[in-house]
Amino acid sequence: MKNTFTSILILTAWIINAQHMGNFNNKVSKMEISRANIAMSMGNDAVYGHPNMQQYVAPQPSDMLYINLRSLYNVDATDYTAVFNIVQVGKTAEETTQFLNDKIDLIKKELSSKGFQGQFALDMISFVPQYEMEVTKKLFSKTYTEVPIGFELQQNLLISYTKDSDFQKILTACGKAEVYNLVKVDYYVKNLEAVYEDLQNKLLAEVVKKKLYYKELGFDMKDYNVIMADKKYYHTPKDFYKSYLAAENISMESLKNQKSVTTVRKPTSYYYDPISYSGYDVVVNAAITKPVIQLGMDLSLRYTLKPIVKQPEPKPEPVKTPQPKVYVVSPNGPIDIKQIPNN
């Protein structure tokens, strides 16, 4: 009995401790969530020699110089578009269309009454008849015949807005019209070129710093040839939502009374997990409080030594052939110069 009580206490402590780690620890084993590595990512793990920590490997010197830079820009959206899917059925085509139009008109009227200034658009998906099987009984057989019983109309309602606070108004209006299927929300930035230009200038400033660092180490960048590669990327919040299931709890009462446990379906939860800043050299607007658009730009430069150009050796000057001369002085004073042949 004492051993049983001790086991229950240990199990209780384990459950309480697990809850402090968050509600998505049941995904740790599958490595499907961002905090799955929380036990290995603490700063003291390397100090105390955590067995799962990778051993440090020193960078190896090379006769080439590299400048690899990554930059990230967190920017609030300037425009949004919410997409709702509407499926309507009716006995006739006219009735089906009217029912769907009534829902859309109700949404527009509700939003207009709240001062909504956004725009609406419709995307036609399908409009098809619905059939059922009609059974005709005969004396020795049955005949099954498809007969039309109604129509199904499916459209997407696109609602564009500029204020993030308008989204709650849109949800309320769609709920009153019995439109519940939110497909997605798209985010847009109007001044996209200006954002990329700002990010590019910050990368160029980092390149200047890196070159100065190499110069202080004794490298003259004029002695190197350079090749480069770059890329841009654009991510909206819908690309970075992850799911998890709430942690499963064990009923202590059922253990005491030896009763069976009735399992309850755990709802799937979602959370926004933006791009991690690890490995980035430039991060603009790092502190974010809501889902944002994340723009990125990467730049890679590789410098290789210019080949040494050998200067041609100077040719020796040709040896001048001596041309001896004889000076003959006569008794009377005149000087006569005579050329002596070389051979």
Task: Tell me what the structure shows.
The strands form four sheets. This protein has a four-stranded mixed beta sheet with strand order 6-10-1-9, covered by helices on one side. Strands 3-4-2-5 form a four-stranded antiparallel beta sheet. The chain has helices at 2-20, 93-113, 166-176, 192-216, 252-256, and strands spanning 64-75, 79-90, 119-137, 142-161, 181-188, 224-235, 241-245, 268-272, 282-284, 293-305, 325-329, 335-339. The protein has five helices and twelve strands. Helix 2 (93-113) runs antiparallel to helix 3 (166-176). Helices cover 24% and strands 35% of the residues. The chain has 343 residues and is an alpha+beta fold. Strand 3 (119-137) and strand 4 (142-161) form a beta hairpin. Among the domains are: 62-76 and 191-305, no CATH class; 79-188, Alpha-Beta Plaits. The longest helix is centred in the middle third of the chain and has 25 residues, at 192-216.
Overall mean pLDDT stands at 78
**Roughly how many Å is the radius of gyration?**
41 Å
Distance between the termini: 132 Å
Element order, helices and strands? HEEHEEHEHEEHEEEEE
Beta percentage is 25-35%
Neighbour order of strands in the largest sheet: 6-10-1-9
> Based on CA inertia axes, which overall geometry fits?
elongated
The low-pLDDT segments are: 4-50
The largest sheet is: 4 strands, mixed
Helix percentage? 10-25%
Q: What is the number of E strands?
A: 12
Count helical runs.
5
**Class computed from helices, strands and strand pairing:** alpha+beta
